[in-house]
Structures are given as structure tokens and as C-alpha cells.
Specification:
Blueprint (H helix, E strand, L loop, with lengths): L15 E4 L3 E6 L16 H8 L23 E7 L2 H12 L4 E9 L6 E5 L2 E3 L7 E3 L7 E10 L2 E8 L6 H8 L22 H13 L5 E9 L6 E5 L4 H14 L1
Length: about 260
Amino acid sequence: QTSPEIIEPQNIPLSIVYEDDDILVINKQPGLVVHPGTGVKDNTLVNGLMFYTSSLSDINGLTRPGIIHRLDRDTSGVMVVAKTNLAHRKIAEQFENKQVVKTYIGLTWGVWIENEGLIDGPIKRKRSDPTSFTINETGRKATTGYKIEDTWRYISKVLFYPKTGRTHQIRVHAAYMGHPIVADKKYGGGANQTKGFLPEVSKELQQLLTILNRHALHAMRLEFAHPTKSETVSFQVPLPEDLINTIKLLNEKYG
């Protein structure tokens, strides 16, 4: 039997939004992988958490101390981390029972027909590419509420409210609706979306993609029952700079 990977604490800058004896709430930067896994041994959020504190839950195994839920590497935003096993169990239960209220903000290609609605499409891992997911009737149930917040000619700003927590859920659902997340190459939101316009428009849209070196999705808000205090807590984190700059450019060009 091979011994589990030893995780080295590393001094990785963490943006801590809130902390008490039970939980840590962080605003994860884009590009940061949450925990070690296939092909990723260090420089993860977990390495940074272990450097920052020695009190993290250990329910999820040695490679995932404190980790109750995840964000994709290139998704930025709010995450809750458990410092105790009790906190971990109580919050994990709320995720399972769909009691955690999650709000994401994303930029998507195109103009949506309906201003708000519910996307309901079961999600399954692709057989051809195990790192991708797709809508498949035999997949696991997945639902995402959405509301259009702003629209600029070719791009919309959308609030997403995932009711379930499947991997890549919002990205898969947005693409399924024909409006992939901007700069999400994996799900059809990359440079191909800038083609077929007048040359100057294509150029402007390509310029947007250079500001964003990652898909335009941000976990903005998280609300749940605190594990030991009898109250609901809610944490909101501001948009990161790359999304602010992209929106600024959209307003200048198409506002």
C-alpha cells in the first residue's frame, strides 16, 4: 500500500473574507487549483491553507483538509473552508440538501431570449474526454436558475443560481443554452465565438479575450446556516479585476 501524498504547507497568498473558530471564508483567485489531484501536486489552495492554519477538518482525507466544496481552477470567488470536523459535517449536509444558496456571475456569449429561467439538464462525464462533461439523459440531475443582469450586443452578464453542485455545472448549462461562458475554451466559449463578424468587431471581441486569461465566471455569494451559531450567514465578494476591466470595455464599446 502506497502512503498518501504528504502535502507541503506553502505560503500562497489567500484572500480571507471571514474567520472564526469553525470556518474560514476565502475569495479564491482565478488560476488556483483547490486541492492536489491528477497532475497537480502543489501550489493549491490546500497547500496555502495548511501554511495559514493547523486547524482544518480531516473528514475529506489527507489531501483535502478543510475542503467541503470546490470551485474550478479558473473560477474565482467565495468558498467556505471547515476548521473543525463538526463544522465540516454540518455544512456538507447543507450542500447535500441543497440548502446552501449560491450566486455566480458570468459573462456569456450572445443575447438570451428569456430574461430569467431555470436550466434543467442532467450532467454526465464525456466518454471521449473524461475531463469534460455534457448534458445526457442518463446523467445526474442538475438545475441552474439564471437571470440576465445586463446585455451588450454580443455578450450578456448573467447571474446564475446553481441548485445542484455538479462539476462544471454552470459552464455546461450555459453552453447547452447556446450561450457559453466567455473565454471558456473547453465548452465552446473561446476564440471561435469571435468569428463571423465584421473584421473590426472580431478584433474588439478578441481584445476582450486577451483581458480574460480564463473563463468569465465568478462565485459572488454564498449563504448557509453557521455550523455552531444559530444564524444564517452570507458572504459576498467583489468582482476580480479581470472581470471589472472586461465589463468596463464592454460598456465603452457597446454601452
